[in-house]
Design brief:
The structure is a homotetramer of 269-residue chains. Chain A is mainly α and 269 residues long. Helices cover 70% and strands 0% of the residues of chain A. The C terminus of chain A is likely disordered.
């Protein structure tokens, strides 16, 4: 029994294992996750969801079955890990880790309507919750982990940026509201409404559903649009630096400087 | 008395003090500033401002009371600082520092209508002036100071960029005016009017309220749009470099080069 | 004969030969390729294609003649290369190299209708296939090869980005579909339809044919637009780094670091 | 006389002279150039040009007078420079330098109608030619020279980019034309017409006057828009690198590496 448990643990937890069977299982789970996301997306196309009611249902039931078994096996084998030792206490500690919660959320929308009387609107929302199964990818995806590390490392600088952009957004939208409100009272009706224009301009998306028409408003809008370039430039640079550093780290600290091609001596400390 | 004054000074001026009470006070002021900005923004939503007339008024009165007391205490205690020594002269010198002026502007809109007969339009403008209370954040915000330093350091390069973009804008808009004016005399009515198109194109916002329709105009517009990429690229690079350097400085000059991971020896000179 | 074959081989294969005649031939082929692309583009303008039926036909026949002769000569001379030795086997191995296939595809659309009975719609498609002649440029263009190298080198990082952007796109579009579907059931009709909005927003193109109108949808849209800046920032940085490195390599490894101006010693592996 | 000539030469040619009078003269010329550009722009606003006919005329005559005197004095004094020695030959050699040609073009539009019988349309075009006076700034502007150097240094890389973007534009527009033409024959009427959409998408301007409506067209459009991010990213990086290097050079090669803060030893060679 203990041997089976160890083997199951290996299948479920050792993401980078090179065992042929473990790898095949990993590919199967990842494929199933992607097919699930794809199915949820396609189900929202009415013509498809009406025509293929049964296949969609069957596939969903099959996926939930696999994910439920996976979840239960994880709960059973988690005690193999030093961190989650303890028949009950260890399992509870495991159940509240982010990855275990994601696994639970991935299957819950299927079981909930069986136990609770839910109105139709909520059930429809639950179906979209199935999209959260994409989060199960986090365990397998090296890239999402890299991105997470970058965001964590550059947290401080990104917060500076977010704060600066928010202040800029508030000031820009307030000024524009004051200038354009009398000319277009329906469009620039309040500062929160004008902030939609502000975001579209600062990010240079520019849908064209709102734009100033008065000369003063256009002058102001031009300045804000030009400042918006900075709003793009700063996080761009920060993330770029962050990625460069993170990739450097992964390549082994003895790599090559991405810029000068010099060998990098690992700094003590 | 002198001891009270010192303690008050500490509360108001020592931004990075780690005293528990000082920190609590700082959090209180910052929260109040943010709530004020939020209130001004929400007040412009007519449905909210009509429904909650009293709460908005009470909150504004309370804020002005706090900020007034804060301002007066600052005026009283500023003489503790070496720079502002002198009962009257020191206080006047303090009152004209940027931060003190911002504090004054933050409360003035409330008192002005009491002393001066103002027309309604001006009073409405004064209400938006309350947004300037966000500038009080400057004293507490590390990030705005970092941004300020970056802009100061890269001043020369940014001026080059601004100048280049302005020349490009003038030349692009003039050419486009000449090409499109006869086809769309109402839209591309003059060079200043065409500059609104120029800004929307060079910043890649592209609202879609103005665009060339003649083949020659579109050919010209395509070239200008492609040049606009450069207009984004250059300030982006400059600000990125600036931020990287500034953050490096803050981390202590003995940090790691963000690119080659080499230990940085502080250069003499 | 063998001498002629060698000379022809030189003309066709030695891209960087400095022989005056070889160079003239290279310029001739490149010019012909560009004129072909130009002709295909212009032929889609109805007024032009109706007026100049004969010149377009003559030019196409002439180009196909040149490209056919070029292809046959390449097939004949390829055995000069060590890699394709062998009268038949070597030539077959040569015929399936990417460049040889491109050369074949460039002329095939002309000959196909002669041998196969094709409907008109397919013939029209074949005419656009002539655009693929631009791929013949790959052999001569240094720059396309540089770009190819960059993409190959940064493959791993770019995949991370593409994956992240796709996940972001799926999540953003699903949320927006759920929020806006009831307000604009025709516009945000399904998740795949909403993804068109998602791409336009994340890339900051913002056509303005779809945009949220509900307050919640606009709030969500604003956050997605701001995240879109990151979607641009990350590949931008990766490609920039890649290009810098590639160009550095080409300049001879003993160049100057583009950033610190230090001489770069070639690292032993 | 020779002394006067030398003094005049100093006024006109020594851009970085610190003599008080020379500097005042420089400021005067630069101001006059900017006012000229401003006047040409404002003249296109009909309401202004009709109301202030005389002031605009007087200012133009005054400017042309100053620029003419400046041009003639330059011609007279240029022989002071070693390069333009020779009473007639030297002056001719000077007259065909770019800066001298720009000075001539700046005044010619004023004199041409006096000598040649021109139709009204051409005269109107000539008035816009006065905008070229902005090019006179080139002599005084440090920043435009920096930009020029960057573009010259990175010429090779920028050409790669331009070529890549053009190929991408041609391929993207051709595919989109083929996909969308049957659904929107008026909008996507030919490949050149579709290229307007291509530029708006690849540069992420997105006016919204043209966009695909078929599912296949939107899928293709989404991929092209995502590739467009690369089209922005690459020149951005190249220009950034170029600027960083150029600014480094100007600061004296013994400056600090913009990234690692290390002192830069000038490399021999």
């Amino acid at each position: 029994m203990q041997k089976v448990k160890k083997r199951v643990y290996e299948f479920l937890h050792e993401v980078s294992s090179s065992d042929r069977h473990v790898r095949a299982f990993r590919v199967f789970i990842i494929t199933l996750i992607f097919l699930n996301v794809f199915a949820v997306i396609l189900e929202t196309v009415e013509s498809l969801s009406l025509q293929y009611v049964i296949p969609f249902k069957v596939f969903d039931a099959f996926s939930v079955f696999v994910f439920t078994v996976e979840y239960l096996l994880r709960l059973w084998t988690c005690t193999t890990d030093e961190k989650f030792r303890g028949t009950l206490k260890g399992r509870i500690r495991f159940a509240v880790t982010p990855f275990a919660l994601v696994d639970l959320i991935a299957i819950l929308p299927f079981y909930l309507p069986m136990f609770l009387p839910l109105d139709l609107r909520f059930i429809r929302a639950l179906r979209l919750f199935r999209l959260l199964r994409i989060l199960k990818m986090g365990r397998y995806s090296e890239s999402l982990r890299t991105l997470g590390n970058v965001l964590k490392e550059e947290k401080e600088e990104l917060l500076v940026t977010v704060f600066t952009v928010l202040v800029l957004l508030v000031v820009a939208s307030s000024l524009m509201y004051f200038v354009e409100n009398s000319a277009q009272p329906k469009v620039f009706s309040s500062i929160p409404a004008t902030m939609w224009w502000g975001v579209a301009t600062l990010t240079t998306v520019g849908y064209g559903d709102m734009y100033p028409v008065t000369p003063l408003g256009r002058f102001l809008g031009a300045i804000i649009a030009l400042l918006g370039i900075g709003a793009i430039a700063i996080p761009a640079g920060i993330l770029t630096n962050g990625f460069a550093k993170e990739i450097l780290k992964k390549r082994g600290k003895s790599g090559m400087c991405p810029y000068c091609g010099k060998e990098i001596e690992k700094t003590s400390k």
